[in-house]
């Protein structure tokens, strides 16, 4: 049989009896197929039978096998095959053999329309050949129903199957263009030399370097925490984060590992973190100018405004940077000047203040809206199609003052009548200000951008259907339509590739991007298989000819989408344009391009007022490199508090998360004694928050994050406290496009997003103007504390009610232990069933230790449990066994056990050794059945230890190192270190005496 296969020049390998794998590594033969020379040895070593035979499918043999388990599918396939092909009988179905020719066919599974599921065995597959024995059924052997030597030639793979394979491979490749932009966690980057010195100090040896994508890790000889090498411990060279594949290690990979500072703290070597070197090239932060008061900060701002030159002013919200600048502008500033802000409401407020400060003309430009434009609906449609309303609608509008046929003048154009362009103060939104300076106020001497200058860079969207409107003006065989039709087809394919992937979107950029989820992916030209360099001049000529043939009003009447024109021009020019698709009916496939409308030729002065401006982003967005930066820090006297709860935007979108958020809010309201409170929350939960605070008799106002109505105003300055129910997180996707358009590097983008993630919460907290009024309170309900760079850590940490209950109960139990044994450390708490669920040893392990303790200290153990039962009896003994009629939940995650800790009841039946211990009526050597106390955070023991130290200030603090089932553990304890050592000797625990020491603090 082997000879027949070799005559066909099929690459065949022996298979182990009853298995589908050779007795040797076989991947090498995919590149160099085996022949008769190899089989001269194999026939002796691996005779057939009992060994089987396997075909190297795909590239080595040029043979593709269709594996069909369902006979009905095979029958439907056979009706579409009008020729005879070799096939074998398998245990459940058939193997059909086809020729692949020169095309490489991958191994995949197809769902062929009208046929069913078919498995394609191509390159990388090993297919059993007759007379191989089936691996699951020793009584079945593969047999030929039509052998390959009985046919004149093996037919090629059917075209409809080949097309299905190509389509699936294309969708699979397109799926690589699907991703999401997330806020990165930059952390602190170490030099390799600094990390090497740290590892040498702690006695950890690096034995191998591992490449993990664009990052590098060192494989360690042994874990510095648990001392084990079997866990394949490794450390990241840029951050120092430690990972171990052993689940019992504190640096377990499944728990996310441990940051550098955390595992050094576990080893008692925090001193190694203090003087770490960072990578060269990291820019120092802008120089900070301290100010002792708000008045001094305003004086500094006024001084630098008078000095001239382009300027960025960053200072705490509420200090009065806008007010100070406005007073300077109205009394002695240049003329004319444009002042822009993010919203029209803020422009109106500033305009009113300016009128009170100066007698010179003050104009607030509102632009076109429902109030100023009487043809607003038509104007809005023109804007959506990419047309300038002033060119398309205004010339023929009967409300235009130039048209005498209609007496009612247009409110929009009336704004420009009788304006002194040489002396005026003009207030507008950011986007409108760009057009004012470019088209209306070319001689403006100063432009003041107040807040969010990066918002000038906008992403212009056009639905994919916009390309279809071009069919009305271009011939089908034109280069423009060839490109448009190819993009339309690609958009549909990208949409299918994004199918079912929640919160993800597919993007294909016109030019390659250098960072982010789409870095290194194929660009638009590669997907379309078109040479845009060659097509570019032709397409531009065709578009130019269209504008010579048709005027814009005519194109508008035809419904032509002008944004589609501009998108194609960006594509052929390798500009910042891309195709995006999401599986969401409300968000169609779009063509997007990034536009920066800042005028290039305007040479007036620029002043940027932004509390959290990123200087590199501002300079590039405004096309003004080297701007002067004034960064002022005013000391804050704010009472900060933190309630740690998971109330993110994703969490509160679900019912369970909303219940958690409302419960946390009620706890926060109890902790705040103020009478006027401002609450910020995510918009999805705003109505429920309003309903919850209605029951409180105080004055409480609820707003949602990113509410533009109150940004930059002082309307909440009379409030005493602000509660952030969850942190505001801007969409990083929009900032990703801005970063690409501005040419930021990956490091600059990472730093900017990190600033944005914290800056939004910073802005929310300052709505109550705490910088001007000391003593106000900021309470954050979130999984993390967001204000480290400005406010430091929180002054008060409010533990959730159930966490406080767990800590209170744990403290009582551990205090009783200290009273009896004169010491305590972390492993004692775990022995008592107190700690993180994954850290507490199994009951059988603890039972063995309890037997040793009871033998060594029978009287102390008896006294400890008696005191536990006596002291806890009054509050409901949590150690009591459940009644026979009581239903005991078997699942620790059962409903009713609330995070972040859970209590699970032990059953009454106990398989451990028999015997009584005192009056408790429990098995000998085992503590009474009780409710374990679980914590979720890693810092549960330091918090409990701090409580115990407060209760026993006379007892010293000591460090211990002990061998446990999880490895070598180092931690801190409280009490008599000699009593602790004697305890370990008495029960036979292995300790490192040299590592035990009394701490100074």
TrEMBL record:
Pfam families: Prim-Pol. It comes from the Bacteria. Residues 911-922 have a biased composition (Polar residues). SMART domains: Prim-Pol. Residues 906-925 are annotated as: Disordered. This is Bifunctional DNA primase/polymerase.
């Amino acid at each position: 049989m082997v000879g027949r296969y070799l005559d066909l020049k099929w690459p065949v390998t022996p298979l182990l009896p009853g298995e589908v794998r050779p007795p040797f590594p076989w991947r090498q033969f995919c590149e160099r197929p085996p022949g008769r020379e190899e089989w001269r040895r194999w026939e002796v070593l691996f005779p057939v039978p009992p060994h089987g035979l396997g075909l190297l499918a795909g590239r080595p043999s040029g043979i593709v096998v269709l594996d069909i388990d369902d006979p009905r599918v095979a029958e439907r396939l056979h009706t579409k095959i009008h020729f005879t092909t070799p096939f074998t009988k398998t245990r459940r179905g058939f193997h059909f053999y086809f020729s692949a020719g020169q095309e490489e066919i991958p191994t995949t599974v197809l769902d062929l329309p009208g046929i069913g599921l078919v498995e394609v065995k191509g390159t990388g597959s090993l297919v059993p050949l007759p007379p191989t024995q089936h691996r699951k059924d020793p009584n079945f052997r593969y047999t030929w129903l039509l052998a390959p030597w009985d046919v004149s030639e093996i037919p090629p793979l059917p075209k409809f199957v080949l097309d299905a394979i190509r389509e699936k491979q294309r969708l699979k490749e397109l799926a690589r263009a699907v991703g999401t932009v997330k806020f990165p966690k930059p952390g602190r980057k170490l030099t390799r030399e600094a990390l090497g010195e740290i590892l040498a100090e702690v006695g950890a040896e690096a034995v191998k370097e591992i490449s993990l994508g664009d990052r590098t890790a060192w494989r360690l000889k042994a874990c510095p925490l648990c001392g084990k090498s079997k866990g394949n411990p490794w450390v990241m060279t840029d951050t120092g984060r430690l990972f171990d594949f052993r689940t019992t290690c504190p640096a377990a990979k499944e728990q996310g590992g441990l940051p550098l500072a955390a595992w050094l703290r576990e080893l008692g070597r925090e001193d190694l973190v203090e003087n770490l070197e960072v990578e060269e090239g990291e820019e120092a932060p802008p120089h900070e100018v301290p100010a002792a008061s708000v008045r001094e900060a305003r004086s500094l701002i006024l001084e630098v405004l008078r000095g001239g030159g382009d300027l960025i002013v960053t200072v705490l919200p509420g200090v009065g940077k806008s007010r100070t600048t406005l007073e300077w502008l109205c009394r002695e500033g240049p003329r004319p000047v444009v002042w822009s802000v993010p919203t029209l409401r803020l422009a109106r407020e500033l305009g009113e203040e300016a009128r009170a400060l100066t007698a010179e003309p003050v104009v607030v430009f509102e632009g076109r809206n429902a109030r100023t434009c009487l043809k607003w609906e038509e104007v809005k449609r023109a804007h959506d199609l990419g047309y300038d309303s002033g060119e398309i609608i205004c010339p023929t509008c009967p409300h235009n003052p130039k048209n005498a046929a209609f007496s009612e003048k247009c409110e929009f154009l009336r704004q420009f009548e009788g304006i002194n362009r040489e002396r005026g103060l003009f207030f507008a939104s950011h986007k409108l200000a760009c057009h004012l300076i470019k088209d209306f106020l070319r001689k403006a001497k100063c432009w003041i951008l107040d807040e969010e200058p990066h918002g000038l860079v906008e992403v212009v969207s056009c639905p994919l259907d916009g390309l279809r409107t071009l069919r009305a003006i271009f011939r089908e065989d034109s280069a423009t339509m060839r490109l448009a039709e190819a993009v339309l087809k690609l958009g549909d394919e990208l949409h299918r590739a994004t199918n079912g992937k929640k919160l993800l979107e597919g993007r294909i950029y016109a030019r390659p991007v250098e960072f982010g989820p789409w870095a290194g992916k194929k660009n638009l030209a590669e997907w379309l298989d078109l040479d845009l360099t060659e097509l570019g001049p032709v397409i531009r000529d065709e578009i130019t000819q269209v504008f010579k043939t048709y005027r814009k009003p005519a194109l508008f009447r035809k419904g032509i989408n002008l944004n589609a024109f501009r998108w194609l021009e960006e594509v052929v020019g390798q500009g910042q344009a891309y195709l995006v698709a999401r599986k969401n009916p409300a968000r169609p496939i779009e063509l997007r391009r990034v536009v920066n409308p800042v005028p290039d030729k305007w040479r007036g002065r620029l002043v940027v007022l932004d509390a959290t401006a990123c200087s590199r982003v501002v300079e590039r967005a405004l096309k003004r490199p080297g701007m002067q930066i004034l960064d002022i820090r005013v000391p804050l006297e704010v009472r900060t508090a933190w309630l740690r709860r998971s109330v993110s935007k994703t969490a509160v979108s679900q019912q369970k998360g909303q219940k958690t958020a409302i419960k946390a809010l009620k706890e926060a309201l109890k902790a705040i004694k103020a009478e006027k409170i401002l609450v910020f929350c995510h918009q999805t939960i705003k109505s429920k928050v309003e309903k919850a605070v209605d029951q409180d008799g105080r004055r409480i106002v609820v707003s949602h994050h990113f509410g533009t109505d109150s940004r930059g105003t002082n309307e909440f300055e009379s409030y005493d406290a602000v509660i952030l129910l969850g942190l505001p997180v801007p969409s990083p996707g929009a900032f990703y496009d801005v970063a690409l358009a501005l040419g930021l590097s990956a490091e600059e983008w990472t730093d900017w997003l990190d600033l944005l993630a914290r800056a939004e919460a910073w802005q929310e907290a300052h709505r109550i103007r705490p910088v001007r009024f000391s003593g106000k309170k900021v309470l954050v309900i979130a999984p993390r504390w967001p204000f480290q760079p400005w406010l430091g850590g929180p002054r008060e940490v409010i533990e959730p009610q159930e966490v406080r209950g767990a800590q209170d109960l744990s403290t009582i139990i551990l205090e009783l232990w200290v009273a009896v044994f004169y010491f305590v450390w972390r492993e004692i708490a775990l022995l008592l069933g107190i700690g993180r669920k994954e850290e507490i040893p199994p009951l059988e392990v603890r039972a063995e230790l309890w037997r040793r303790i009871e033998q060594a200290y029978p009287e102390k153990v008896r006294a400890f449990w008696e005191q536990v039962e006596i002291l806890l009896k009054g509050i409901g003994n949590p150690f009591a066994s459940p009644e026979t009629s009581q239903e005991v939940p078997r699942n620790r995650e059962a409903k009713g056990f609330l995070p972040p800790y859970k209590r699970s009841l032990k059953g009454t039946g106990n398989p451990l050794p028999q015997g009584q211990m005192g009056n408790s009526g429990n098995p000998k050597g085992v503590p009474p059945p009780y409710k374990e106390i679980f914590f979720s955070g890693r810092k549960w023991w330091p918090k409990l230890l701090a409580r115990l130290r407060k209760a026993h200030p006379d007892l010293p603090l000591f460090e211990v190192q002990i061998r446990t089932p999880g490895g070598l553990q180092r931690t801190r304890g409280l009490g008599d270190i000699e009593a602790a050592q004697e305890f370990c000797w008495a029960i036979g625990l292995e300790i490192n005496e040299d590592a035990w020491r009394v701490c100074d603090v």
